[in-house]
Amino acid sequence: MSVRHGYIDVSGAFVIPSPHGNLFRFNEGLARMPVSGAWAFIDPKGRERLRVERAFTGFSDGLALTGEGFINPKGKVVLPVRFLNNFTRYVVGGKSYGHVGLFGSGLAPVTPPGAKASSAFIDKKGEVVLDGFGGGMVERFVDGKARVHLKTPPKGEVSRLIDPKGRCLASYPFKSMGSFSEGLALAHKARKLGFVDEAGAWVLEPAWSSWERDLSECRFSEGLAPVKVKGRYGFIDRKGTQVIAPRFKAVVGGFSQGVAPVKEDGLFGYIHPDGSWAIPPRFTSVQPFAHGLAAVSLPA
């Protein structure tokens, strides 16, 4: 089956084609796409703003990781990165890492060679500024906060929320926990899921069945969060009320710019907050909207 790739606008019109596929969501006004043996960053009008040999990430906190290192939106290399072992080893500021994550609040998580998780943060000069976090997931900073795990946590603590100075803002006892969004995060308790606030208090008591994918997928956006009920997905509001019945086979992210991408009868479309179709299902793959555009694939 022949497939078309590109970006649609909020009406569902196909406005920016991509002959090579591998489309990515707009971040900070730019999206990356493959073009003739290289990568381009385009703006929401489809105009090429930058071209690089390799683009590993989109922009976050003003920087994108390319084959030369982290660049700013003008294409200037702000933090050089040297890649070794077929791009599986990063050398930044003279130190070697197994992985370097996205920047947020001026910091990026880094993973030592051979380690399974990030254990420190570097700044935009490549210098290690926060260290000592190991033994579990380290999230990037969002809105000045990041959740980390200590190598030897205090009794009863599994993870904690820190600021860019490393100061503890709150600690959490949950072995499985999602990312914070709109002040709430998904958390496990007795094989059920609920939502806690940044202080760790239950806002919505555990009442939903286990989420089968990455917990970061189940989070609030624009006041609604996807939950799974008897094998189908619907949406709840911040009071826990089921506002969109669980009738979808899949949800991609959540609501963004007034619509959410969902799957029904084998194809993806976009729904309004009342559950009605904004763009009926006709796509084989989709992403949430950003800057008025969404990356999709559909049969030619």
Helix percent band? under 10%
Assess the beta-strand content as a share of residues.
over 45%
Terminal-residue CA separation: 8 Å
* Total beta strand runs: 30
Write down the secondary-structure element order: EEEEEEEEEEEEEEEEEEEEEEEEEEEEEE
What descriptive keywords fit this protein?
four-stranded antiparallel beta sheet; 30 strands; mainly beta; flat; 300 residues
Give an account of the 3D structure.
It is flat, with a radius of gyration of 20 Å. A 4-stranded antiparallel beta sheet has the order 2-1-30-29, with no helix packed on it. Strands 12-13-14-15 form a 4-stranded antiparallel beta sheet, with no helix packed on it. Strand 29 and strand 30 (294-299) form a beta hairpin. The protein has a domain at 1-28 and 221-300. The model has no long low-confidence stretch (mean pLDDT 91). With 300 residues, it is mostly beta strands. Helices cover 0% and strands 46% of the residues.
Topology, pairings included?
Layout: E1 3-8, E2 14-18, E3 31-35, E4 38-42, E5 48-52, E6 64-65, E7 69-71, E8 77-80, E9 82-84, E10 89-92, E11 95-97, E12 99-100, E13 107-111, E14 120-123, E15 128-131, E16 146-148, E17 159-162, E18 168-172, E19 184-189, E20 192-197, E21 202-208, E22 224-229, E23 232-237, E24 242-248, E25 250-251, E26 260-264, E27 267-271, E28 277-283, E29 285-286, E30 294-299
Antiparallel strand pairs: 1-2, 1-30, 3-4, 4-5, 6-7, 7-8, 9-10, 10-11, 12-13, 13-14, 14-15, 16-17, 17-18, 19-20, 20-21, 22-23, 23-24, 25-26, 26-27, 27-28, 29-30
